[in-house]
Amino acid sequence: PEQDTIMTYRSVNDLLDNARILLKDKKLRDLMRRNARRFCLENHTWQHRFRKLFRKLGFNDKKQKSILVKT
Predict the structure, then answer these.
(1) Rounded CA gap, 19 and 29, in Å?
(2) Which residues contact residue 68 at a Cβ distance below 8 angstroms, ignoring those fewer than 6 apart?
(3) Is-contact 7 22, C-beta < 8 A?
(4) 25-47: per-residue pLDDT in tens?
């Protein structure tokens, strides 16, 4: 869930409250860090970028897989 990955705020007071919560709660910080890292690795790697580029250039998935090397 999003609340386990990011914290949002609408005011300075919300931001300060979030900062206080995170400063006091190491388990929450670690959970959010792990979830954010997992999300980035699943959605925002160079492989994702190249797949998107190849799709825009008109290559199909079969061609993409032969071009990209999984790391």
Answers:
(1) 10
(2) 47, 50, 51
(3) yes
(4) 999 999 999 999 998 898 889 99
